[in-house]
Each structure stands twice: as structure tokens, then as C-alpha cells.
Queue: 2 jobs
Job 1
Amino acid sequence: PDVSEQPCPHEERSGLLNMTKIAQGGRKLRKSWGPAWVVLTGNSLVFYRERPPQCAPSQGWAPAGSRPESSVDLRGAALASGRQLSSRRNVLHIRTVPGHEFLLQSDEETELRAWHRALRAVIERLDRE
Ligand code: I3S
């Protein structure tokens, strides 16, 4: 298999998705859809403007140009379909405990389903800890 398509060691899943924040700390934000390189780790979701050049650490030091745009803790997060929140197809809605909300979208249904499963698995594992 093509090594470039393997997730990095600390990653549960990573890939290019369309993303918009819709709330920050409980305050509604104006939608602004755009592509993001999204990394799911064992406890958080990390957003990069573009794919980092190599498996960059998710926290702490990272080479210039590969620092995350933002990162959210998934402990206690709510995951749901984003169907009612967008006219786009294949949309997921994530709300974190501090009230940050995101929509994730892919034109590939199988891709979004795989993200849904992976996110659910991480959130359920964190719930059991
Ligand atoms: O939930 P909304 O307000 O229908 O979301 C649409 C708007 O954010 C729109 O931008 P304006 O703020 O310029 O109206 C975006 O271009 C659309 O993509 C948003 O809807 P979708 O259905 O694509 O999430």
C-alpha cells in the first residue's frame, strides 16, 4: 500500500474534509466553509489549513507551516448528522463541551461514514474512561 495514504502513528484517522465552525464557546458564528486537513487523535480533533509535510506532532512544537489552525477536545462531545444544519450532503455536526461547534462534510458518502464511525469510537471510548 501507498505509505503516503497511511495515517501517522498517533492518528486514528486523517484526511481532507470541508469544514466550517458554526459556534465558538456557545456563540453562533457565520458559516465559512473551506477545506481543512483534519486529524482525529485518541482524544481530539485537530484542524490544519493543509496537509502537514510529515507526521507532525499534534501538540507542542511543530515545523513552521504545519501548526494546527485549531484543535478541540472530544471528551464529552456530541456527534450527530448535520442534515438539518446545511443544504450540503454528507454533513456531520460536532459540539464540544465548551460549546464549540463544527460541521464536517465530504462529497464522498463512504468517506463521511468512515469519519462518523471513527469519531463515534473515540467519543465513546472517552465516555468510558
Ligand atoms: O445555514 P445557512 O445560513 O443557510 O448557511 C449558508 C450561508 O452561510 C452561506 O453564506 P452567507 O452567509 O453569505 O449567506 C454559505 O455560502 C452557505 O454555504 C451556507 O449554507 P450551506 O447549506 O452550504 O451549509
Job 2
Amino acid sequence: MPKVLVSDPIDQAGLDILSQVAQVDVKTKLPSEELIKIISNYDALMVRSGTRVTQDVIDAGKQLKIIGRAGVGVDNIDVPAATRRGIVVVNSPEGNTIAAAEHALAMMLSLSRYIPAADQSVKAGNWDRKRFLGVEVYKKTLGIVGLGKIGSHVATVARALGMKLLAYDPFISSERAEQIGCRLVDLDLLLREADYITLHLPKTPETTHLINAESLATMKPTARIVNCARGGIIDEEALATAIRSGQIAGAALDVYESEPLGTSSLRELDMAAILTPHLGASTEEAQVNVAIDVAEQIRDVLLGLPARSA
Ligand code: NAD
Ligand code: MLT
């Protein structure tokens, strides 16, 4: 019987599918030396974002046929190294779209009304209503950077909230943007005009530090930025400086240049910043979706059926 190693927490629905065709070992939080030591025993590896599947892991996985990422981003997997060894890499491009979009929208509304800080204040025994005077999103301009699956759902909901929508995405047409109620503009204009900016693009060499000291300086002092895409698209030090100095009004981040977030000036910011620990895909529904989606693909490959690669 083939063997599958599951090295991050995966919903039981996915484990049940894998168990139909394979022996499934769930071993989470493995140090990388330990993973490298045991991976040669396995035909398939299933991960979320916690496991770094490096070239060393891939080279040690002599029997590996497939690596499954229960989520969208495969940036924790060395895909070129896997391809060189003929190992298929699969993901779940749509399983957590709604979860991530809803998290970004929740961040935008929480930033506007200081909900996390107000909650902490009441729980600490205070009743401070003046400190938490918020702003409305109605009739404000939302700039969406990356109008793919998540960005498009954010647009649909934001439109229902009465927001005006700008989008920047070099790979989609103005017609497509208009269908979702967005005016496609260049990035400079979006950053200058938006009251809220939300990022929904992949991290690539081109998008690393896309939001930096220079671009932050072009934003309105009332602008608030949300990043539920990938850490490193925003230069965190430049962002912390911009918030501290009042150059922009705030930020809500779910993803960081280095995860888990270590010592960081982001942690020292007041209620103008909201930080969550990479929770975009953390809904019951999304975790079932991605687990089933990826487990089915691993099962098929172990049965000798063709794969749909990431
Ligand atoms: P998608 O592929 O459907 O959309 C990405 C969009 O970004 C595409 O339309 C693409 O054309 C656009 N894009 C690419 N390069 C760009 C650039 N330089 N400038 C502007 N736009 C650019 O992907 P998606 O499913 O919508 O996911 C978006 C991001 O969210 C990914 O980075 C993904 O890894 C991340 N994500 C995070 C979480 C989380 O837990 N926080 C959950 C799911 C997805
Ligand atoms: C993804 O790319 O799907 C997200 O980062 C969510 C996750 O970590 O599973």
C-alpha cells in the first residue's frame, strides 16, 4: 500500500479520502532534519503553509510522486526542484477563495471601527466611547490590487457596501474589471485615490515590496491598507514608519515577510494596526474544501490517474 505523509493540520475529510488508498501518517511540526530523514518512506506529501518543502526535502523523497498543498499559494514548495524530479505539485485554487475574501473584508471593517481595540478596552473594564470614533466605508473608494478570484469576490461585496471600486491588475482586461464593477487604473492612480487598499496578488520577485516607502508616501493620510495575500508584498518597516508618522491611517495584516511573525515594529503599533496570524483560509468550510480537493488529487495520482498540476 502507498504511504502518504501529512505534515500540517488537515481536515479529517481529506484524511478519510487518502485512507481509502494509502497508509496515512500525520506528523505535524516536524523539524526539517526530521522531515528529510523520513520522507524517503513516502509516496506522497500533503502540506499547508507550515511545512517548507525545500530542494533537500525533495531530493530526499526518493519515492515521492506528488506533493499536495491544501491551499492556493505553493510558495512554500520548491516547485522547480519537484518538476526536475518528475514530482507533481497540486493545490486547491478555489477552496479558500470565499474565506480569504471575507477575512479581508472583516479586516477593512475592523480597521474602520477599531473593533479589536474597543473589545480589549471593554474587557479591561473601561467604557471609552470617544476613543473609538470610526469612519464609514460607504461611498469611500476601495483600490483592489489583484483582481483574481479573491479580489473579485471582495469587489462584489464591497460594491454592495456602497463603495466605489478601482482595480489594478496588469493581466486582466478593462471589460472584465467593469463586469465586476471596477474601474481598471494604473497602480499610481489607485494608491493616490483610494481610501482603502486591499492586496490580492501573488508574491513574485516583481511584487516584493510593491508597497514601499515611496508608494506609501503617495497615499492619502486617511488611507488604510489590508494585506491578506502574501507577506513581503508590503515593506513592513516602511509601513510601520508610515503609520507611526501619520502618513497613512492604518493597516490590517494577515501575512508577514517571515512567519510566524517574530520581533517586529508592527507589534508596537496602536489601534491603527490589526494583525492576525495567517487566518485568511481558516474557516471550517474552507478547510474541508481544500482538504477534499487536494486529497482527491493525491488519491488519483496514487491510483495511476493523471494529475492536475498547480
Ligand atoms: P488569483 O490567481 O485568482 O488572483 C491573483 C491575481 O493577481 C490575478 O488576477 C493576477 O493577474 C493578479 N496579479 C499578478 N501579478 C500582479 C501584479 N504585479 N499586480 C497586480 N495584480 C497582479 O489568486 P487568488 O486565489 O485570488 O489569491 C490571491 C492571493 O491571496 C495569493 O497570493 C494567495 O496565495 C493569497 N491567499 C492568502 C490566503 C490567506 O490565508 N491569507 C488565503 C488564500 C489565498
Ligand atoms: C493559501 O495560500 O491558500 C493560504 O495562504 C492559506 C493557507 O495557508 O492554507
